[in-house]
Design brief:
Layout lengths: L6 E21 L4 E7 L1 E6 L2 E5 L4 E4 L4 E21 L11 E3 L5 H9 L4 H18 L5 H6 L2 H10 L6 H8 L3 H12 L3 H19 L4 H7 L5 H12 L3 H7 L6 E3 L11
Antiparallel strand pairs: 1-6, 1-8, 2-5, 2-6, 3-4, 3-6, 5-7
Length: about 270
């Protein structure tokens, strides 16, 4: 592990959402860390979905763009840590990751001492980062991703259109079988699941950022009917399109203590 560079920013909050909240497409210029104390959080980025539960730590790299859905019964509560290194490229090869069942002790110390003993809080944070970067995987996906880049970029541009595995494989110069295996190994999902996730990501954007009808969204995304779109959306997102639209209009989260800079609010 390389030597830690100087931190130029650091803050921690305890945030609470009542019940469920959907967040619009969001990106932060600095990295953020979230730790779920209560509830569940689902993230959509790069055509894939990820779920964090109570006791999970979420590392969100700088410039990560994503949608999120926060689900509580009755509330979602989490520590939100915002920070920046003086060298903005430091540890930039660590990308979005969820670390399951991560110990909460360091975050408790960071939060409890943030106002009264900031140096102790900062020391605990450095210890946390040291442990995290030792556990996390570096972003080694770029060379591998290049092997299927033509298919991935095609799907990103044309996810609402019909396309076959054979057509995608031909874009990359592989047989169907080899392409299917390679795509799944690199992306973690099949090509068609990736395509569906991209469509659901576009649907989330439309539901949260426009007043377009469900029928219009379904048609634009290439679904044969609004009913079929709703079935696929509910199966993928675990909430109905109507739920997402309602959740997106709820009030902002409650905040507990500590002023912060560049909060990772709504991670």
């Amino acid at each position: 592990m390389e030597k830690f560079p100087l931190l130029s920013e650091y803050s921690i909050k305890l945030l609470t959402y009542q019940k469920t909240r959907a967040k619009k497409w969001i990106s932060f210029s600095n990295p953020c860390i979230g730790y779920l104390l209560h509830g569940t959080a689902e993230f959509w980025l790069n055509g894939q979905s990820y779920t964090a539960q109570e006791g999970d730590l979420i590392y969100i790299a700088a410039e990560t763009e994503y949608y999120s859905l926060w689900i509580g019964d009755p509330q979602v509560q989490w520590y939100s840590v915002s920070f920046a290194f003086a060298d903005p490229l430091a540890f930039s090869d660590f990308r979005f990751q969820i670390i399951k069942n991560y110990p909460v002790a360091a975050l408790k110390v960071m939060f409890e001492r943030f106002e009264q003993d900031p140096l102790a809080s900062l020391s605990a944070f450095y210890s946390l980062l040291s442990d995290l970067y030792a556990r996390m995987e570096r972003g080694s996906y770029t060379p591998k991703y290049a092997k299927i880049r033509p298919a991935v970029e095609y799907l990103q541009l044309h996810c609402a259109e019909a396309v076959s595995i054979a057509e995608l494989a031909a874009l990359c110069g592989y047989s169907e079988a080899h392409f299917f295996m390679l795509f799944g190994r690199i992306m973690g999902v099949s090509p068609m699941t990736y395509k569906t996730n991209l469509r659901m990501q576009r649907a989330m954007q439309a539901l949260l950022e426009t007043d377009d009808s469900i029928e219009a969204i379904a048609t634009r995304l290439g679904f044969s009917s609004a009913n079929y779109f709703c079935r696929v959306f509910s199966k993928t997102v675990k909430r109905t399109p109507g739920d997402i639209r309602r959740y997106g209009h709820l009030k902002k989260p409650l905040q507990s203590a500590t002023p912060a800079v560049h909060s990772c609010e709504g991670s």
